[in-house]
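Researcher: Next entry in the queue.
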Amino acid sequence: MSTNTVPGTAGGTHVAGAPLTTKVTEEIVPSLLRNAIDDRIVRVRPTSTPVDQISRCLGSRSCSSMTVEYYSVDAREACDTLDRKRLPGTITRSDIGNFTIELEVTNSRIFAPTDTIMLPDVLVDGTPLTAYVAYISGDILTVYVLNEPTGDSLSLPQMDKGTKIVRMGRAATELDVQTGQYQALPHKRSNNCQIFKVQVEQSTLQKIAGKEVDWNFSDQEEAAIIDMRLGMEKNFLFGTRARITSLSGNEHVYLTGGIWNQTKQSIDVNINSLNENSLLDLCARVFTGNNGSKKRILMGGTGLILALNKLQFSRAVLGDQSLTRWGIRFREIVSNFGTLYVVHSEIFDMCGHYNDGFILDPDYVTKYCHIPFSKERIDLRRAGDRNTDAIVLTEASCIVLRHPDVHFRLIGSLDDTAVDTPDTGNDSSTDAPI
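Model: Structure for this entry, 434 residues:
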C-alpha cells in the first residue's frame, strides 16, 4: 500500500492512501515522537536533575555532528574610566558656542560620535557632568559639556584617573539620516556531544518468575533512566570538554563540557555571614549590567541552600513563596532587581561543591542533540549471547550557554576572609565577596 503525503495549506503535512504509522511519522515529523519520549522522561525524578530537566522542557536543537559550534554575543560595555587625571580649570565657549574639553579614556572603542556621556562622580554646580561626544582620536574623546552655565565660562572640578564614565544614548541633528555604525560580532564557541548509554536486561526466567510485587521490565527501565540522568546531570554541570582515543585505538570518545566551565562570571559568597543585605547585594550583582532576564534559577549544594533557608526575610527581599515550573518545585527569592528560583541539587554535594551554587538564565540555554533520546531493543537470544530481553537507552547531547555573562558561579566559603577563586573555566572574573 503506497503512502502519499500532501502538503497542507498552513505548512503541515497530510497522509493519504495508507494508515498513519510510527514509521511514517518519524519520516515526516521526526521530533514528534521524540518529544513524547521527553515528556515521559521529565516525569522521572525531575528535582534530582534540574539542568537536564529544564533543558528537556525548553526543547532541543538537532545537530549534524558530535562537535557543536555555536555563537554567543554579549552587550557592548556601558561604562569606562578616565585614563589620565584632569586638573580643575575654567573653560570658555568655542566659536560655535560649545564648551569643549578633551577626556583620555581607557577604552575609546565603546564610544562613538554623537554619543552622550555622564560622569556621575564629577559634579558641576551640584549636578553630574554630562557631555556630547564630538570627535574621537585614539583614546581621546573631544566632548561638548552640556552643563550650561549662566555666563560665558564654566568651572570644572578635578577629574581623577579611574573616574567612571557612563555611555548614554545617541543624539542626532534634525537633518541626520545616518549615525555612527554599530555592529555586534558574535564569539564562536564549541562543545562536544557526549554519547550517554545504559543497557537494561532481564532474563527469561526472571520475567516469568512469580514476584511479591509487580516489578516488571518497565520498572527496571525507569530505574535505569534515573541513573542515566544523574550521570548526565553531572556532565552537564561539571564535565570537561575533550576528545580522546578509545582503548581499541581506532575510535574517538567525545566528552561534553559542563556549564560550570562555560561562564566567566564568579561571585564569592560567605556562607557564615550570609544575611538579607548580602543577598540583596547578590541580586543587584546578578540582575544588573548584563541584559539577562529578570527570572533566573539558583541551583546549589546543601551548604548554600541551608544558609539561604535560615535567613529571615523582610519587605526588601521576599523568600516565603514557592512555585512549580518545568516539573520542579522552586522556592522564590523576590527582590526589586529580579527573582531567583532556588532548588537544592545533591549533584553539587557529590561533585565537591557542597557550599557552591550556579545561577542559570533559562532564556539563554540551548540543548543540542546529535542522537535524540532513543530506546533500541537488542535480540541477544537470537545472536546466541544470552537468554535475555535487552534494551539500550541512548542520547548524544550537550548543553551550551548563549550569552555567558548572564550566568554566574557562586563560590561558597566558610569564613569572612576574601580568597581568590581558582579559575576552573576558560575565563574567570572573580569579584569581591558578597
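Model: The longest strand covers residues 365-378.
Researcher: Noted, moving on.
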